[in-house]
Please model this.
Amino acid sequence: MDATIYIYIGFLILTGIIILSIPPFLFFLLYKHLKKKGKTLKNIGLLLFILCTLGMITLGIRAIPNSNTYEPKFETTVIEQKIGGKLLCNSSYFVDLRSYDFFINYTYINASGDTIDFEGGTYNGREWEKDEQIVKLGKFLILKTGSSHDSDKLIIKNIQTNETKTIVLDRYFVENNTLWKIQNITTQKDRCCFESFIENFEGNKFLLKYKFKTNEYLIRKYGVRMITFQIDEKNGDVKMIKVEQIFKILDFLRI
Model:
């Protein structure tokens, strides 16, 4: 665990001690008051104070965060592939106070038992669905996976040369494309919360849903485009071929 986690846990413990000390303190004041009312009431007040104190201590111990919560978890997942064979996914799961992350390394075992290693994928602050399917396109095997919290990526493997091409489908890849530029779409490039995720993959084409900030001052205003890409079966290059506007402006709460 990093220093931030220890500081946060220490803060929680200190805050908890202060809050949980209030009921015993009140019962202690009650006990002091009952001491003046005779031995029986004094004993009742003392018993209530002791029971309350023990109860608060027990509650406090149970509320302390378990350090094991922040330890990495490792898992191997096997996904049957529609093209035949299996995809072995060796994943590492990390969680901290800010977010959580999945890091996955992929190995494809084809129907003949041959193994092909792919580069890894990353899912930051979003769930890993464990549903990857490799697409075979001529001499290429194509795997869609996560790149970060806001984008997907393609790992394109040439099974003849064993060369790997990685295409990160982030806002820079989208907005630096010539077809995108000629659309004259205004985006706030220095602003946050862009998203680009693959919606559908069919044959040598895939559909990317791209969400982008449209207004510097209206924080909830976004535009959305559905972008069609085509993969060249000869060299594995990815080309943007169509940009469609599904909504002019959307409130991000409804996307």
